[in-house]
What we know:
Elements: E1 11-17, H1 23-33, E2 41-47, E3 52-58, H2 61-64, H3 67-71, E4 77-83, E5 98-102, E6 105-115, H4 118-127, H5 137-152, H6 155-163, E7 168-176, E8 179-184, E9 193-197, E10 206-210, H7 214-219, E11 222-226, E12 231-236, E13 239-244, E14 253-254, H8 256-261, E15 267-268, E16 271-272, H9 273-287, E17 294-297, H10 303-313, E18 321-323, H11 336-339, E19 347-349, H12 351-354, E20 358-363, H13 370-381, E21 386-391, H14 413-416, H15 419-426, E22 430-433, H16 436-441, E23 448-449, H17 451-454, E24 456-457, H18 463-466, E25 477-478
Parallel strand pairs: 14-23, 17-20, 20-21, 21-22, 24-25
Antiparallel strand pairs: 1-4, 1-10, 2-3, 2-4, 5-6, 6-7, 7-8, 8-12, 9-10, 9-11, 12-13, 15-16, 18-19
Helix pairs in contact: 4-5, 5-6, 9-10
Bound molecules: iron/sulfur cluster (SF4).
Family: In the C-terminal section; belongs to the purine/pyrimidine phosphoribosyltransferase family.
Keywords: 4Fe-4S, Glutamine amidotransferase, Glycosyltransferase, Iron, Iron-sulfur, Magnesium, Metal-binding, Purine biosynthesis, Transferase
InterPro entries: GATase_2_dom (IPR017932), Ntn_hydrolases_N (IPR029055), PRTase-like (IPR029057), PRTase_dom (IPR000836), PurF (IPR005854), PurF_N (IPR035584)
Amino acid sequence: MTEADTLxxxxxxxxxxxxxxxxxxxxxxxxxxxxxxxQESAGIAVGDGATVLVRKDxxxxxxxxxxxxxxxxxxxxxxxxxRYGTSGAKSWEAAQPHLSTIGEVIVALAHNGTLVNSDDxxxxxxxxxxxxxxxTDSEVAAKLIGYFTEKTGHLREGIAAAMRxxxxxxxxxxxxxxxxxxxxxxxxxxxxxxxxxxxxEEASEGWVVAxxxxxxxxxxxxFVREITPGEIIRLSDDGIVTCRxxxxxxxxxxxxxxxxxxxxxxxxxxxxxxxxxYAMGRRLAHEAPVDADLVIxxxxxxxxxxxxxxxxxxxxxxxxxxxxxxxxxxxxxxxQELRSRGVRMKLNALPDNVAGKRIVMVDDSIxxxxxxxxxxxxxxxxxxxxxxxRINSPEVTWPCFYGIDTDTQDQLISAxxxxxxxxxxxxxxxxxFLSVEGLLNCVPMNGYCTACFTGEYPVEIPASFSSGKFCExxxxxxxxxxxxxIKMGIGGITAENN
Length: 498
Ligand code: SF4
């Protein structure tokens, strides 16, 4: 899918504790591996034992940092962040890590996810006289942690007190001058893994946290485990210390990581995302077989399920669409004429392979439908005689509130049209989506959020946050704690009663 018609992961997070190593460069390469999770801005904050320095800016990792920038960030502990900014928040202030002070201590926070009650919390903090510089929920989290740390006199207590009040899907890494903290929401919606750097002749062992295992691989760290939902980990000269910030709740890993967001070479619960997507293609072939001459995938995430689909039906698999891998995000706006060519900025059909053939085109999802329509048209223009569209996820019918940039429900084609209507809109000869049951069969273990397919939300969405986001006639189901059970107040907290 193209940028304009796809779901976006909001961010990628990386952190490293590694005295004796160049932590700024390790973080740079960790972010490089996580670039697919956000291309709007990038930043690194480094602690050197005395203070924390940060460099961040709008742009890709390779655009934001020069060799000299990294050399100017000496230290032994660091966090990094890549961000996909929503349209209202493309400012430098919204770029992360978010730097703030707690008394004399400087901290920098890197956050992946969305806090659904950030408006309430921001209002309460402002009433307490705490100023804000941006409209991001990451600043709300940073200010809340600061507030409770000052109250309790202890940063880990401050994080735990903040976790008891923030709601949503989040994975965060926070650095101070001499320690790295990593923590994750109690449902485990957003991912965060822990890795280890083995000791060398020059450096003692080190620790890494990251949104995905591909970022461990690039810096030579070995996977240890996931940060458990609701856990806080502290990495410092005292080694690794772990404690529970909030009790674990019903597990609700974002299943869209498996469909599309995560890099195929990243691993979860012992399986690569490539293998899971391949299995989705096989399952889809069982659920919606079709006779054809060639199966193609929409690059990149449609390729593994297309291979699985072709394998299962004994059909040829090949390339039918070529992707310009260097498009990413550009700050140079295309001319109107180029913009009207839409998806061709990123994809082009390969007539050599598709002309005169009945094609099965496999893609990860359909959001608005305009991209699928353009690709189907492109394949027909290249000479395909039939185009059958197969999607390796169920229909995206509901908006996401946990860190993914989805439109309001009225912009989701599946919320507004039935299957036949969508088929007609995109101009396909046939169309089928993987079932929810089929998808769940292709991923390891249980415990997933499937809200964007089912409307069953693991964390209740405050009406103020979801107002205007649902279409008439759609009533979401709350699977989690009700708002009445969640600790909301900020004022009056002390070290004793926290
Ligand atoms: S609603 Fe969908 S995209 Fe959002 S966290 Fe749940 S599964 Fe992921």
